């Protein structure tokens, strides 16, 4: 009887333990499943976002062009017979050259004002600059007829890409003569989509087919250059002082708390600070990469300081102890031993901070970098814009063709950010030390 009474409670306890373990394993399985579902949902949203951007923007990397036999008529290029040929070519009416060449291509439309207007509308008005630079660099073209590829207007480009239809209810806005000319040019193989080099060689424009990212890319480069030049040494110096030399008291605790809080402050607050200090107080040039770099320095400094302190803290203490044992001073220990070992982590944090800075828009809008800038800046003191602001400007444009330009600019920005993050991963893997 005693053995039986002792066995029954032990069996019941084992059953309770088994049930508890089974419930715990089931809970762990459910938790793991929830995590997998969360990851799948997040990746699905990311995939949808990337697919939407790429599907809308890839077409911007191709631009429809038309092959037109252009006759460089001397009577149109230098009607007054000026002795200074270069001056005459600079002021010549190249629109009349294009119009005359198109009417020669469609002789049935000659003498009809509406037909002339609609056919001329096929070629982009920016083609005149292309012809001007071509003739001024090679005046021997005067009097010749050459087949030249010219950009078409944005509506024609959208029609050829299938983004719009031929009629008004399909998004098109074409006249009968214009559609006839387009069909004839397409049948003759004179309408083709080619790589859109204007997207990278031209500045901003009111005409979608001529709008490019050259000015925004140059402005982003100058702004990022100023940001790195200021934030990297200041961030590293602050991290080294706080981690290696600063006394541990309530004042350094307050500084640490404020640095951590600054990393979470909305970037528009830094933009307001830059507007008041750098523009209103110091009078620095508005819309310049210099002021933009100063504003982004304020944004990225907390991130660099925090990453730098973490990297310095990760260096084993026996490195410092060994240096002190050999007679090195605290400064020598930090400069010659601790800082080189922590530099990979510091560089990684810096690149991540720069990646955040290059994607910021709000602080740059506050300092006026939202202005319409056509020319590429030659220095950090000239007015400019940057890629995120260019995306904002194009997104607010009413023309349908700017939709693909906006997505293309986002693709370029995402590629730039991906390269910077890949560089951070590479540096961490290449120089990482395992203790």
Keywords:
single chain, 435 residues, mainly alpha, MetI-like fold, three-stranded antiparallel beta sheet, 18 helices, elongated
Explain what this protein looks like in three dimensions.
The longest helix is centred in the first third of the chain and has 56 residues, at 2-57. The protein is mainly alpha-helical and 435 residues long. It has helices spanning 2-57, 74-77, 85-90, 94-105, 113-120, 127-137, 154-160, 176-187, 198-201, 214-245, 250-262, 267-281, 289-313, 317-325, 330-358, 362-366, 387-395, 401-431, and strands spanning 62-71, 145-151, 191-195. The radius of gyration is 32 Å and the shape is elongated. The protein folds into 2 domains: 62-196, no CATH class; 214-431, MetI-like (MetI-like fold), CATH 1.10.3720. It has 18 helices and 3 strands. Helix 12 packs across helix 13 (289-313), helix 13 crosses helix 15 (330-358) and helix 17 (387-395) runs antiparallel to helix 18. The model has no long low-confidence stretch (mean pLDDT 85). It has a 3-stranded antiparallel β-sheet with strand order 2-1-3.
CATH names the topology of the largest domain as MetI-like fold
Low-confidence sequence ranges: none
How many domain modules?
2
Element-level helix/strand string: HEHHHHHEHHEHHHHHHHHHH
The percentage helix is 55-70%
How would a textbook summarize the main sheet?
Answer: 3 strands, antiparallel
Strand content: 5-15%
Q: Which CATH class of the largest domain is shown?
A: Mainly Alpha
CATH homologous superfamily designation of the largest domain: MetI-like
Radius of gyration: 32 Å
Tally of contiguous helical segments: 18
Number of strands: 3
The SS-based structural class is mainly alpha
CATH second-level architecture of the largest domain: Orthogonal Bundle
**What is the residue-mean pLDDT, rounded to a whole number?**
85
- Oligomeric status of the shown chains? single chain
Strand order within the widest sheet? 2-1-3
Q: End-to-end span in angstroms?
A: 62 Å
